[in-house]
Amino acid sequence: MKISYKWLREYIDIDLSVDDLKDKLTFSGIEVEAVQQTNELLDFIFVAEIKEKKTHPNSDHLSICKVFDGKDTMQVICGAPNCEQGQKIAFAPVGTKIGDFVIKKAKLRGEESFGMICSEKELGISDKHEGIMILPDDAPIGKSLGNYLGIADTVFDVEITPNRVDLLGMIGIARDLSAQLDVELFTPLLKEYQHKDLATYAVEIKETNLCTRYIANVIEGVKIEQSPEWIRECLIANEIKPINNVVDITNYVTLEFGHPLHAFDKKYVDGDRIIVRNAKKGEEFPALDHNKYVLNGDELVIADSNKAIALAGIIGGINSHITDDTVDIVLEAACFNPSQVRRTSHEKKIFTDSSYRFERGCTEQVAELVAKRALDLILTFCGGVHTRTVDVYPNPKEEEIVVLRPSRMTKLLTLVLDDEKIIDYLTALGLDLLKQDTDALTFKIPAYRQDLTREIDLIEEIIRLHGYDSIEAKPEKEEITDKISFYQRRKVQDYFVTQGFYEVLNLSFSDPYYLDMLNIPANDYRRSFIEIMNPQGQASSIMRTTFLPGLLKNAVYNFNHGQENIKLFELNKVFFTSDKKLGTEKWVISGVLSGKIAPIHWKNKTENINFFYLKGLIETLLALFPINKYEIVPSDEPFYQVNLAAQIRIGKQVIGTFGKFDPKVAGKFEYDKEIFGFEIDFNECLKYMNKKGVVFKEISKLQTVSRDLSFIVSKEYPVQSIINDIIQCNAKLIKEVIPFDEFTGKQIQTGFRSISFNILLVPETNNLTDDYINDLINSIIDKLKSKYHIEMR
Amino acid sequence: METKLNHVVLAAENDIKGAQSIHELMNIKAKYIGKKSEIMDLMKTLGSLSPEERPKVGKTINIAKQNIENLLENRIVKLKEMEYQKTLQDSKVDLSMPGYAIGYGSLHPLTIVWREIEDIFISMGFDIAEGYDIEDEFHNFDALNTPKDHPSRNLADTFYIKDDVLLRTQTSTVQIRTMENYKPPIKIISPGRCYRNDRPDASHSPAFHQVEALVVDENITFQDLRDTLNTFVKKMFGNHMKSRFRPHFFPFTEPSAEIDISCVNCGGKGCAICKNSGWLEMGGAGLVDPNVLGKLGIDTEKYSGFAFGLGIDRITILKYNIPGLRLLYENDIRFLKQFTMNN
């Protein structure tokens, strides 16, 4: 629904800024979807005077005017027949933008023109386009037209929730704001009917469930003409086309109260009878939208003694509408069943302002108000005499009474208000206080607020007006969980489980002798263990600094119990002495592996656990954190076999080691099979993990290119260093270098190997040409030749 | 000429019928309607015909050509279908052969239960607080109102590192550290490893695991404690489970209670596990003693709190019906394997 700020001010005296009003509406539950300035253009149009008018020497319909805008006199060529010397006119200077059209300095048939004298249509004030807009003689030169006419306005496009039928009219909105802002509400004074003649004009409601009230007022001798400007303006602001004074007034009152009305031309209502009945099957109805509808029989129609003259609450008939020749009218104000209106409107696909309102509901009492208001306006602006009123209201509704307990309100809202404040809010909304007892306020609900039927509805109204923000949130609980560590630990555990590992738990105690068994030297950090003053024995005399002895013992235990394939991991704490009183605790992720990588299988041959399986396992684990920048380099870990021991290094920091246990060490633990192990500092992993979130990058439409390169190279060069050098040839372009084959044998000289690489090029800006790719590959080969003395295959 | 054309079409039809592959069919196509085919030769003679005859003869040739094309097309469709059917036949395998999988391992049952407990409390709005295994005497005893001469401070009960540094005997230490570092409202559980100088047997281990809960806020009542425990017990062990409180004494809670839950084995009827009582002892609970709160600078008029502690090891062996703690720390794969289903 649209709310004109200017119109709104007719009912409440407020002077809020547009933004403030928008806020007030929004926080009282009326969501503002858009705000639009109307006639903004008029701020850039000025009152000016035509000082002089000459005919154009080269044209018989153009004239040359000297226009004075209060500061300068400019020459303007004008084509309007009604332009005369001495007139006050609306002047648009050079640079003004009217619609998509910008006024420029121009030459018209040899004469220069600086600006434009505007018509009402050009300014969007009316449809009048014959000639320029002539302003009264006393219009002040130099003042903006918007300022002078005062018709610039702000229109709020608001969404009304389905429960608030009363807000579909300007008065409803004004009433709600008046309650919220504590200002007085001015509603139109409604006169009692001057004339009542219940006998001679007949209204008959056949379906009293579908039409609960029907008021017909007869006005004779009206004069159909254009409506007064202010009514037209209101309708235009609401995007309703002005038609004539009677129709415009019914629309105006609809906008004002939110309850639709309709007017019939009395001479086409046969038999001076209004009948509200169900349609007949096959009955034809010619509607105002120029369509002829064939009715099924389940529609509700307004009929005269012969024919349907309106589809109740939806659209009038073209057989009875107000025309320029209308003299006597029948004014309808009625209530129709919302479901009935909705069903017929959707079935027939007729969606009108009237059906929109009726399907949301209407009130019998408001029907009477709109009848009186429209009658009053018609008599004032269309003339005529009110001759009859027929009001059929078969089952008058009872008044709704609701009791509110302030204590209940306080319990639900934690809001304490004294009774007077509560009464103020609710009476401002139109409720009447009937009785005030201790913790019991009895209210009569006004008819237009059918949504208020229970105590809780009143409590909602109070907090809505008092402001939801007045209820403060309690202090928040601080975040105590170390979420990154907490969830990362779970992720790591789950990862190992999916890789076929069993999680073990060993007690935190250890025996220093195990460190000797692992060849751990005296200055090693794992020797900084914490001793227990009162241990239960040598075997549990210190707090452990590594899990590997425990895990090896677990492996031996399981080996002795018939298991050949062993994958065990443990995630827990290790303890070191430090300068802190309580020592230092760290999380460590550790594991041992032996036997087959996977269970034996009929189709896929299962390999034994080997160094590169373990390396891949560790690399995937690091990717899981994710840790991006690390190196895996040889390690001198004393318990791993020489040449099969590696460490994970980030800069100079070693965050973990892995490898194959030296057979002698494994032997000390009474294990005679190949066994691998790893131990990684979980705290360091957390420190180095990439905690930045992922930001989506557009998927490249450019072609990626893949090239293979095979060459023979001395075994002394590690593959990683060759890969790094290849990438460095064009780090932006080369996204991956994957060794996919390694070969040594008879054809290859001892000490050398043949390696094949797959190089992936991912361009960022342009597709790569063959020449470019070849140049790049050649430069890579040259570099490798000079640095590694490779021999291409 | 029409006879000739009929012959060509008949011959083509014969060849096409016999074709067993798309490749063969393409050769047949070249032979009969290709550039050097008989039909194309006939086409070329059209120029020499009279203008009246030309359209008629041209039409006849075209019809023949069209016929051959249709035959070819139909055969292609048929061959493709045959090929498809053959693919289906060839792909037949013994679906009962095992799939290839690296095979799942398993979390330790204690971890499974531990996570379940954490998740239940997280869903109830609790945070997880963690602390040190190695603690000082203040956080383990003094701050918890434990008298200086309380037997639990003995070397026979508690492992010491130094005179006033020890292995924590309960995770209440984390509660104290949390209250030192955070202002109410506080709503935490602190699961973790604890240590007591007990000789290992079926129901004792020198290291074990405990979860403690602490809530400090305005208007915290004994009812909140009961509700929280009740909800936990039902979520952990099932809706039919009941819990009850028995008055007890702990230095840091007032009033204090021991918590019993319905026997997980017999559901309360009485059995060997619950020694025919129908109840199992689960841990201790109570409202935090105002002295404990007050020492930490919390306004005891404004705030109150509750705390309880439960044994994770005990919950684990009860939940899985494991006979004693020993199996939990043996790390036998045959034992661990049984918990694969629980991941």
Q: What is the makeup of the main sheet of chain A?
A: 7 strands, mixed
Question: In order across it, which strands form the biggest sheet of chain A?
Answer: 28-31-32-36-35-34-33
* Reported CATH architecture of the largest domain in chain B: 2-Layer Sandwich
CATH topology of the largest domain in chain B, anyone?
Answer: BirA Bifunctional Protein, domain 2
Reported for the largest beta sheet of chain B, the result is: 7 strands, mixed
Average residue-wise pLDDT of chain B: 91
Number of domains of chain A: 6
Silhouette of chain B:
rod-shaped
| CATH topology heading of the largest domain in chain A | BirA Bifunctional Protein, domain 2
Helix content of chain A: 25-40%
Quote the distance from N terminus to C terminus of chain A: 79 Å
Corresponding CATH architecture of the largest domain in chain A = 2-Layer Sandwich
Global Rg of chain A: 45 Å
- The CATH superfamily of the largest domain in chain A is Bira Bifunctional Protein, Domain 2
Per CATH, the class of the largest domain in chain A reads Alpha Beta
Instruction: Note the quaternary state here.
Output: heterodimer
